[in-house]
Amino acid sequence: MNLEVQDVTWVRRGTRVLEHVSASVPTGSVTGLIGPNGSGKTSLLTLLAGLARPTSGRVVLEGRDIGAIPIRERARIIALLEQQATTSLDLTARQVVELGRIPHRGRRAGAVRTADVVRQAMADADVLHVADRRWQTLSGGERQRVQLARSLAQQPSILMLDEPTNHLDLGHQIGLLRTVRRLGITTVAALHDLDLAAAYCDRLVVLDGGRVVAHGPAAELLSSPLIEHTYGVRAEVEHHSLAQRLTVVWHP
Ligand SMILES: Nc1ncnc2c1ncn2[C@@H]1O[C@H](COP(=O)(O)OP(=O)(O)OP(=O)(O)O)[C@@H](O)[C@H]1O
Question: Which residues form the ABC transporter domain (predicted)?
């Protein structure tokens, strides 16, 4: 599923939160959105997920304007894991994950057993052991992983993740991004951790002030000038020979 942002500008309540943004999300790739707080990452994910319309420009999914795709059809294609995903309902973790199956309800073609899909999604997100716990009793990291399982249960072609590693310990941060890579779903993830972004993304798009200031292969894009210019932080970007990836060493 090819997804493209074409010269998008979005004005929200008088603020220009995205300006002339163009980007493409190649099928099967993991694209990282990086940039400082308020640079427009969540806004771009919101438009990519078709949850709002840009002021100008287009978001195009397989040649169709995303706004023209009916909500239920869109929900079978795209899952969005929001930054503060929550539920006010008194549900168990498993029931929260089952909500991901709603867009597929009543469909006979290729019917799969909901219970199997839900179990697999919970295994992938490492939350089977909390399946029967009430949502409200889960820790922040457990909730985050249950919401990931809910997105995976949606069986989307495209996965949007807004700061998915929030609340997660180091092992689960790595585990989540490895899982996403292993599943091979086309993914767009807003990330703050530049080491993780360099290690697990194929491509990076760098936003600053609502504009794309750099984009390219994750293995090459990060540099000292880019980090200093974008984040106002002096840092060295080194190739770690043992880990075989770029690492960012910042100066105090
Ligand atoms: N509903 C809204 N109405 C008006 N402006 C908004 C709205 N939501 C966000 N903004 C503004 O849009 C800009 C981009 O916000 P956005 O949440 O997309 O940034 P972000 O890069 O995801 O930030 P963070 O890293 O802090 O999550 C910010 O200036 C923000 O204040």
Answer: 3-234
